[in-house]
Design brief:
Elements lengths: L1 H25 L2 E5 L2 H11 L3 E5 L14 H9 L2 E4 L9 H7 L5 E3 H5 L22 H4 L2 H12 L4 H27 L7 E4 L5 H7 L2 E4 L11 H14 L3 E5 L5 H12 L5 E6 L14 H15 L12 H6 L6
Parallel strand pairs: 1-2, 1-3, 3-4, 5-6, 7-8
Helix pairs in contact: 2-7, 7-8, 8-12, 10-11
Length: 326
């Protein structure tokens, strides 16, 4: 009898020890992402198996972002940290490096995208970090995120993989839709003039020339010569519209518009583009798919093209946000 009671006691103790581990495994992964473009992919892939906190919201410029004491606390409480990489989060770099020594910290772009696909630049960056502007490239972070989340929650692996497959199909459809949309712009007007060089991957992937007034980083200063040079491009190419960005003061773009008018070229603002941050949470523009959809819509309509209907693979996304699809 005593032996049976001892065995029962040991079984109960083992169960009590195992309970926290089981609860940890069934609870969602507490993930922190630096930018919305990373955070939304984690949310789509993780589904119910991940809870995502994003540090930088709408209108926040990651090039200039500085970590606060609250951010450090958020990192401390996180189970996993995901960031874009290639110095996009420049001033957060030291903080991310320190946390990588004590918990899983994933630089999604360097971990996922072949270096042969990168655009090199002649400045402190060395690599253009705006890879999300090419949907086909950015979709390559999906397996990396899926693998990282699955390692943290093995019981969620099948759900995570299903989510990753579905989302990858949506991104493939979006990539083709953007390409077809940009191709509808008359060739002479197929030039995208923006505040800074965040759209080089977009231009390369979708066949549109890109001209940024500033460089890769928004920390660079724009001079009078830069304004005049860009205004001359606008005049020479008979560009009907230029674009402001949600994270950058529009004054440089307005200066180009005024300089072009002085040369006799009327040019308008073609709309606000999302470059380094997405739109408001809880809206279509606050999703990665919506970010590229809205940018493409503004660019194509302002430059004289026409967007086709969204493909069937995006019906679910479009229905959620009450957007006409196929």
């Amino acid at each position: 009898m005593a032996i049976r009671l001892m065995a029962a006691g040991l079984s109960m103790a083992a169960a009590l020890v195992a309970a926290p581990a089981m609860a940890q495994q069934s609870a969602p992964v507490q993930a922190v992402a630096t930018t919305g473009m990373v955070g939304d992919v984690i949310g789509q892939v993780g589904g119910e198996c991940a809870e995502v906190t994003t540090l930088m919201g709408p209108g926040v410029d990651p090039h200039l972002y500085q970590a606060s004491a609250r951010d450090v606390s958020t990192f401390q409480q996180a189970e996993m940290i995901f960031y874009s990489g290639y110095s996009l989060e420049g001033q957060l770099g030291d903080v991310l490096e320190r946390f990588s020594e004590i918990k899983p910290t994933v630089a999604v772009a360097p971990s996922s995208i072949d270096t042969g696909s990168l655009i090199t630049v002649q400045d402190v960056y060395g690599i253009d970090p705006h890879l999300w502007m090419d949907v086909a490239l950015w979709s390559q972070i999906v397996p990396t995120i899926a693998e990282s989340l699955s390692e943290a929650r093995p019981d969620c692996q099948s759900r995570i993989q299903d989510n990753a497959s579905r989302y990858t199909e949506q991104l493939e459809a979006l990539h083709q839709w953007v390409k077809e949309s940009i191709a509808s712009i008359p060739e002479q007007q197929r030039i995208l003039v923006t505040a800074h060089d965040a759209f080089n991957y977009f231009g390369r992937a979708y066949g549109i020339e890109v001209a940024g007034i500033q460089g890769i980083s928004t920390e660079t200063e724009t001079g009078v010569a830069d304004i005049r040079e860009m205004a001359q491009v606008v005049v020479d190419r008979d560009v009907p519209a230029v674009f402001v960005e949600s994270t950058i003061n529009p004054r440089t773009v307005q200066a180009v518009i005024e300089a072009a008018r002085e040369k006799g070229q009327e040019v308008s603002v073609g709309g606000q583009l999302y470059s380094d941050a997405m739109g408001e949470a809880g809206t279509a523009d606050g999703t990665y798919i919506g970010m590229l959809y809205r940018n493409t819509q503004h660019i194509v309509e302002a430059l004289g093209g026409e967007t086709p209907a969204l493909p069937e693979a995006l019906d679910e996304w479009a229905a959620r946000w009450d957007i006409a699809s196929s």
